[in-house]
Amino acid sequence: MQHFIETINLTKTFGAKKALSDFSLKVDPGGIHAIVGSNGAGKSTLFRILLGIESPTSGAGYLLGEDSRSLPESVRGRVGYVNEEHTLPTWMTAQGVMDFQRAFYPSWSQEIFDQVIGYFDVDPKQKVSGLSRGERAGLNLAMALAQTPSVLILDEPTLGLDIVAKQSFLEALMFTETEYDSTIIYCSHQMEEIERVADKLIIMEKGHLVNNSSPDEFVQRVSYWVGEFVGDMFARDKMPGFLTAKLIDGQHHILVADQGPDFGQQLANMGASSISQSSVNLERAVNAFLTKNHKSPSGAYDRKN
Amino acid sequence: MKNILVCEFLRYRKAAGLAMIAFLVAAIFISRLGPFLDPNSEPVAVLSVALMFGSMAFGLTQMLLHRRKNHWTFLIHRPVDPQKIYGAVMLAGMAVLAIAIAVPWFLMVAGLDLATATVIDGRHYAYVLHFFMLCCAAYLVGSLTALSANKGSFLFAPLILILLIPSPQSAVGQFLPPILMVALLAILNAVSFKPNLSQHVRKPWAIALMAVPLSVSVMYGLTMSSTMTYHVPKFIMGTHPDNNPIDGTFRYYWNLDAADRVNYALQGSPHPRATQFGQQAALADAAIVSTKAAPFPHRGQLFIKDQQYALSDSESNTVWQFSHGSMLLEGRHAISQEPVGAVGRNGFLESVDQARAEDRFREVPIISGNNLMVTSDGMYFLDFNERHLIEKFQPATGERIIGPPQIEEHYVALSTSRSLLLFDRETFADEYYAAEPDHIVPHPVDPNSVYYVQTYRMVDGYLVVYSGPDLLAFDKPGIIVLHSKPGGETEQVYTRTFDTYAHPGWIRHHLEMAAPVLSIVYDNMVALIDPRTTDGRPWTAERMVGYPPSLYGVAILLHLFAIAAVVFLVRRQNMPKPVATTWLLLVAFLGLPIVIACLLMNPWRPEETGPEPVAEASAAPA
Fold first, then answer.
1. pLDDT-derived band of residue B617, with 50, 70 and 90 as boundaries?
2. Are residue A10 and residue A122 in the same domain, yes or no?
3. How far apart are CA B8 and CA B155, in angstroms?
4. Do B80 and A73 touch (CB under 8 A)?
5. Quick one: which of B160, B182, B532, B548 is 20 to 30 A from B439 by CA?
């Protein structure tokens, strides 16, 4: 199996802060790989290291098999990158920017560009500075896809877009992925988008990789339990795979990871009664993972119990 | 590459156009105040400095805008060699500078050339190119500061000023240094322009190219360090020798009033009239003249090197500029700008066209005051009303005039390669006669080693006192007292030497001590560019210099310390072998400044860069 992206024990520190910690990831060719993580999880740092903009403190990253610290021009030509700001030369017209980019990519597909830009209402004579955020995102995506990249990295591309622009963006993305079989790395905080487009779900938390599987496989990892505990019998520290819990109408709603059906028996052994298991959707599962280690006012949950 | 160049240029085209208009408005305003091409014009000097700083700020801003995170990715992440991307961005930046600076400057010169009778030579046009190159160098220093991980990139800026100091005698000497400077900075920028801007340069040749010029700036930084470590503390404590001169030092002599100096200079003199000279000098009129060679202008030199713009005659309301093209002094009416004739070696001419080969000056004269022209072989007086040229003085065969005349209360002094000539002031001012010196005082030493000559008007001639910290040899201060008698005889009264110094050797020679090789190479380079200047010192002269013996010991110790420091840094940074070897070779040759350069050009914390890239990842390339 060829890995389009591979990182081996990648670590990046900024002063005392670790943005990435022994981060090892393999991304196979094809499909849309969604990267999810809370702010500061290390997603953008990962992309910058992969693009060779920053060097790792230790470990190594490979893009299309090449060490990211010395990417040859041929590899850069096969990797598209769209950032959340949709940085483009604002002083040029949309047509001018397209002509500018097209000159660098011999495999440029005008057909793809025209098809993707068709999802957006972009006047070619309009200056980029006069385009709406959504139009700029559309132009950026159209150009990135027209490069026919082997790998397309999208770093929160729909950030700040309205619902219509977001819809157009996702439709264009899915169309291209279906028609042209690009490998797309899609980083977003929008779970509804992830749910729609992702073939693989990569979850990052504080510089660590916590999941790399299909969304369905990931959802299966998370189980949702409801039970009643008497007094202060509820002890989350003793629960294997504990993610989050909420106390609603005297019942504890608990999310745990990687636990089988016998987890109900474990809850019973801990003093729980009226135990039941429910299904969980992707957004809730992901949120449970991401909020697991988040800081909260000290002891707030315990005081409620 | 062309696309990036065009894109980048379009970004700044409006700003460039506005800057060009602003420049033209400022230049036209300045030309209303006085001649725009006056080398001593303060507004033009201010404008030039502003343009150079502006160029530097532009380079810095341009690259800082690019290196913002996402903007940087947009620029660098494309299938193009980063050096080519930089080349395009740099050329666009230079095109902007050309529009904002070179074009309006050229238009001003061409406008003056075509629309007025102002003398415009090729050298005025050449200056546009020269100044544009200086602005490009400033621009590149700005961009290097933004791009390079080197923390001392801005230290390249003082090197641009060093380019302005010498007055080269050839076009090669004039243009080669700025061309090399621009080329060097462009290369360093290109090397620094890489996807990961936090990485320091690691190519040995690039390290050498960056470290050596940086060391020159550092060398001057070390010069200033003596201010902090010696002068300032001494001033604060109130013990600085300048304020508390030590008896027996040259400084002590120099701090005395003019009236007391001869007495001090003649202490211990066996001359029978020593006491009498001292007493007379205390009451005599004293004046100071210089014997240092003033570099004569050379043909085609940049106009900013001229000492004076033109001769002006208020009665005829005419302005006379020397043309390096025709080698004549060309006149025009100050208001109507109509040509009013020319002046050649043989006198006034009705027009420039009338000049024959023998009329043209053989060398460019220094023009001085309102009506004086001096070349190394003659001094000329001009009477603009009578349209009459007098050769006021001609030195003897083999003798050269080495500077313009200095007009004092009682005499006019002229220094030649052999003597100091004192003319009676009134006779000298007579427009109809050549001048004969009343006193001819042969220089007792090389005139360039003299700090100043002080004269005392006595009842029987002049006491002429030569003095200087290097009068008798390098670092051998002394005073030579001469008595020039009215009959033309000159008697050497006394030579006083000094063995005590106001400042210790490590202050007097700290540059040679801290950076011996660099200071010698630099002195040689300056001497090579402009052999007439006393700022540089060719190798032949350097070999004659005798430094205090202790200086050699301290210099060796400092050099060993520098090598040890670089060895420590190289090991601490775990540098690859070629990089480490480069630094060790540099410090072995250049000494202490390289330690500072090494600190600036490397991360201060040991860099963990992970394993070296391997040819293939664990996964097969896609």
1. very low
2. yes
3. 27
4. yes
5. B532
Give B443-481 pLDDT, tens digit per residue: 999 888 888 899 999 998 999 999 999 888 888 899 999
Chain B contact for A23, CB < 8 A? no
CA A123 – CA A94 distance, rounded (Å): 7
Of A213, A242, A274, the residue that ends a domain is A213
| Chain B positions in Cβ-Cβ contact with residue A96 (cut-off 8 Å) | 7
Q: What are phi and psi for residue A273, nearest 5 degrees?
A: -130, 175
Does A51 share its domain with A183? Answer: yes
Q: Same domain for A138 and A263? A: no
Band the pLDDT of B243: cuts 50, 70, 90: confident
- The predicted structure's pLDDT at residue A83: 87
Model confidence at B620: pLDDT above 60: no
Residue B150 is encoded by which pair of tokens? 């080197």
Boundary residue ending a domain (A166, A182, A213): A213
Q: What is the 3-state secondary structure (H, E, C) of B536-556?
A: CCCHHHHCCCCCCHHHHHHHH
Cβ atoms A43, A5 nearer than 8 A:
no
For residue B10, what is the enclosing H or E element? Answer: helix B2-33
Q: Which residues of chain A have pLDDT under 70?
A: 1-2, 231-234, 293-305
Question: Do A259 and A200 have their domain in common?
Answer: no
CA of B106 to nearest chain A CA: how many angstroms apart?
29
In this structure, are A105 and A13 located in the same domain?
yes
A-to-B residue pairs, Cβ atoms closer than 8 angstroms: 113
Nearest chain A residue to B195, by CA: A53
C-alpha distance from B192 to closest chain A C-alpha (Å): 13
pLDDT of residue B441: 94
Q: Domain of A155: which CATH number?
A: 3.40.50.300
Residues from chain A contacting residue B79 (CB–CB below 8 Å): 73-74, 76-77, 104-105
ipTM, two decimals: 0.87
Question: What CATH number is associated with residue A289?
Answer: 3.30.70
Checking if the pLDDT of B616 tops 70, the result is no
- A224 and A89 part of one domain: no
Number of separate domains in chain A = 2
A83 with A103, same domain: the answer is yes
For B186, the token pair is 């462009």
State how far the Cα of A219 lies from the Cα of A202, in Å rounded to an integer.
Answer: 12
Q: Which amino acid is at B517?
A: V
Chain A residues with beta carbon closer than 8 angstroms to that of B70: 83-85, 87
The parent domain of residue A279 ranges over: 219-304
Question: pLDDT band for position B185 (50/70/90)?
Answer: very high
Residue contact A104–B78, C-beta within 8 A: yes
Which are the contacts of B473, defined by CB distance < 8 A and separation ≥ 6? B449, B546
- Beta-ladder partners of A79: A151
